[in-house]
Amino acid sequence: MGYWDTSRDPRILMALVSSGELGRLVPSARSRGPWPKREVLGFARKANSIINNLRFTYMDPRAMAETEEVRLLAEGADSLLRALEVALEPDLTGKRILFHLGIIAGLGRRLSLGRIDDPVVAVDLYAGEVQASHEHPEIRGLKVCRVWVGRLMTVVTNDLSVEEGDRVGVAVLPPREFGGIISEGMFLGHGGVRRGVRGEPGGLPRGLRPEDLSEASRLVASFIREHLP
Q1: Does residue 228 belong to any structural domain of this protein?
Q2: What is the number of structural domains in the chain?
Q3: Which residues are CB-neighbours of 98 under 8 A, at least 6 positions away?
Q4: Which of 100, 105, 213, 215 is deepest in the core (most CB within 10 A)?
Q5: At 211, which CATH number?
Q6: Is residue 143 part of a domain?
Q7: Is residue 223 part of a domain?
Q8: Do 133 and 93 share a structural domain?
Q9: Prediction pTM value
């Protein structure tokens, strides 16, 4: 099938960034009790080494998704995710640690999408359904939404027309705080949130136009560029 430049594949670069961010965030994390801090730091170092090696293999993405290295990354990250979802305080640092573990855990799933170089595939994209929404209590012009994507997540949006029951596409992004409320992603759309997105919540969104992905793609590319060592 020809050459594929894995050294520039956004999925690999994002996973590399995430392994580095884990090492930076974990020392300052707050927990609700004992937690495997040393194990997480050790995993971050190991993951960084593995992903750096994968970056320069120039393998087809689908073939890479089936490698033992990617399987081990997924197993290690999934195991830590289960432990830290309970152990860490749900503050911004804790949410960011969980996000970066999720990036590493899902690397194989994203690589299995094939030869795609759009930065948006470096993060998880879900079909979702808005379960609840209300105006932000502190910041005018923002709305806080709880969205079911196979799990509940919070999205803060500037589209005030979003309502309970809307079927939407969601990009899971590095968590950000808006007036004390942590947003875990963004709604997909161009000129407003795209409604009527098809797909089971937690699965890939269907019925999106290319322009619906453009803002999420820009944000992911910017994050990689700012954090890549």
Answers
A1: no
A2: 2
A3: 81, 84, 85, 88
A4: 100
A5: 2.40.50.140
A6: yes
A7: no
A8: no
A9: 0.97
